[in-house]
């Protein structure tokens, strides 16, 4: 039986009106810019900023080490800086960018989801997750998102504004600090992986995200010195930006949120597909693999009777294999069950058939762990829940 549920059968998640439909937008509602921060610059830029303020340029090295290695922004911790200059230097390059608005724990304390308030009151989320062999942070790159995916709460908020590099990197510093200080169950550990899968479409905030990738990868004191292999940038399919990223010399993993192998369904499921079709997107993803040597992840949320048909698994395998073998890895993600909604989890049997079809066709496939599913798992849901609560209290 081939039941077909369409994304348009119901108003989008979080919609305020039953007839509401997603609207794609690249324009931010707010134009405000976060205060300038050390992490917005490379080392040369930090030196120039200090010099311009009449301070010694060589202090940039020390300050960078405090931020990226010791993970502190507190002038009291910086005894190698002259007492008389500490506050001035910190005020200039280490303004407070993010403030904790809420924190929720799940998975027996191995997952912590933070809601951060930014300087202008905008809110974003990050999720820190401990696994047996790694500790991963999922960061936000925009406040809200303009991609309007109908299954995503963030998409229904629209794009408030792009984050600055400093605002992205400070999410990472705070998470590294939390991991180091034993905030996750299992004791102190080191943050090893960063995924750009929180709020926002990272490639729609391209320059800032590339700056953040440099700060993540560059060795201390310039950055955190994380391995590029452990960093993943996820996209719904901004084809020109994928091509550009492949040439940055930053061999990070690209994750494509595909969710449908046919344009007919994907046009409704991922509105940006109206601009760049599945074929163009997979061509760009394959080119990314060829240029960087990094295998591309294909993310595929399995939604009951919408995109989980065996014929779609076959079509996906054919589309991938027609471009070569071994270049992509498919991660089917079972959706959280949402009773009464069209966005609900595939049956176990459908999941198995989908995975078997891909594997039978030689496509590497791993069902992904859905961490934090008991704490408003998908991006944007925590912010929506907190906002709702605040409105109720007003
Ligand atoms: S799924 Fe990602 S790209 Fe789509 S609206 Fe949500 S945050 Fe934006």
Automatic annotation (TrEMBL):
<dbReference type="InterPro" id="IPR004383">
    <property type="entry name" value="rRNA_lsu_MTrfase_RlmN/Cfr"/>
</dbReference>
<dbReference type="InterPro" id="IPR013785">
    <property type="entry name" value="Aldolase_TIM"/>
</dbReference>
<protein>
    <recommendedName>
        <fullName>Probable dual-specificity RNA methyltransferase RlmN</fullName>
        <ecNumber>2.1.1.192</ecNumber>
    </recommendedName>
</protein>
<dbReference type="Pfam" id="PF04055">
    <property type="entry name" value="Radical_SAM"/>
</dbReference>
<feature type="binding site">
    <location>
        <position position="234"/>
    </location>
    <ligand>
        <name>S-adenosyl-L-methionine</name>
    </ligand>
</feature>
<dbReference type="GO" id="GO:0051539">
    <property type="term" value="F:4 iron, 4 sulfur cluster binding"/>
</dbReference>
<keyword id="KW-1015">Disulfide bond</keyword>
<dbReference type="GO" id="GO:0046872">
    <property type="term" value="F:metal ion binding"/>
</dbReference>
<feature type="active site" description="Proton acceptor">
    <location>
        <position position="125"/>
    </location>
</feature>
<feature type="binding site">
    <location>
        <begin position="257"/>
        <end position="259"/>
    </location>
    <ligand>
        <name>S-adenosyl-L-methionine</name>
    </ligand>
</feature>
<feature type="binding site">
    <location>
        <begin position="200"/>
        <end position="201"/>
    </location>
    <ligand>
        <name>S-adenosyl-L-methionine</name>
    </ligand>
</feature>
<dbReference type="InterPro" id="IPR007197">
    <property type="entry name" value="rSAM"/>
</dbReference>
<keyword id="KW-0698">rRNA processing</keyword>
<keyword id="KW-0819">tRNA processing</keyword>
<feature type="binding site">
    <location>
        <position position="152"/>
    </location>
    <ligand>
        <name>[4Fe-4S] cluster</name>
    </ligand>
</feature>
<keyword id="KW-0808">Transferase</keyword>
<feature type="region of interest" description="Disordered">
    <location>
        <begin position="1"/>
        <end position="21"/>
    </location>
</feature>
<dbReference type="InterPro" id="IPR040072">
    <property type="entry name" value="Methyltransferase_A"/>
</dbReference>
<dbReference type="GO" id="GO:0000049">
    <property type="term" value="F:tRNA binding"/>
</dbReference>
<keyword id="KW-0479">Metal-binding</keyword>
<dbReference type="InterPro" id="IPR027492">
    <property type="entry name" value="RNA_MTrfase_RlmN"/>
</dbReference>
<comment type="similarity">
    <text>Belongs to the radical SAM superfamily. RlmN family.</text>
</comment>
<keyword id="KW-0489">Methyltransferase</keyword>
<keyword id="KW-0949">S-adenosyl-L-methionine</keyword>
<keyword id="KW-0004">4Fe-4S</keyword>
<dbReference type="GO" id="GO:0030488">
    <property type="term" value="P:tRNA methylation"/>
</dbReference>
<dbReference type="GO" id="GO:0019843">
    <property type="term" value="F:rRNA binding"/>
</dbReference>
<keyword id="KW-0963">Cytoplasm</keyword>
<feature type="domain" description="Radical SAM core">
    <location>
        <begin position="131"/>
        <end position="374"/>
    </location>
</feature>
<dbReference type="GO" id="GO:0070040">
    <property type="term" value="F:rRNA (adenine(2503)-C2-)-methyltransferase activity"/>
</dbReference>
<feature type="binding site">
    <location>
        <position position="336"/>
    </location>
    <ligand>
        <name>S-adenosyl-L-methionine</name>
    </ligand>
</feature>
<comment type="function">
    <text>Specifically methylates position 2 of adenine 2503 in 23S rRNA and position 2 of adenine 37 in tRNAs.</text>
</comment>
<feature type="binding site">
    <location>
        <position position="145"/>
    </location>
    <ligand>
        <name>[4Fe-4S] cluster</name>
    </ligand>
</feature>
<keyword id="KW-0408">Iron</keyword>
<keyword id="KW-0411">Iron-sulfur</keyword>
<feature type="binding site">
    <location>
        <position position="149"/>
    </location>
    <ligand>
        <name>[4Fe-4S] cluster</name>
    </ligand>
</feature>
<dbReference type="InterPro" id="IPR058240">
    <property type="entry name" value="rSAM_sf"/>
</dbReference>
<feature type="active site" description="S-methylcysteine intermediate">
    <location>
        <position position="379"/>
    </location>
</feature>
<dbReference type="GO" id="GO:0070475">
    <property type="term" value="P:rRNA base methylation"/>
</dbReference>
<dbReference type="GO" id="GO:0002935">
    <property type="term" value="F:tRNA (adenine(37)-C2)-methyltransferase activity"/>
</dbReference>
<dbReference type="GO" id="GO:0005737">
    <property type="term" value="C:cytoplasm"/>
</dbReference>
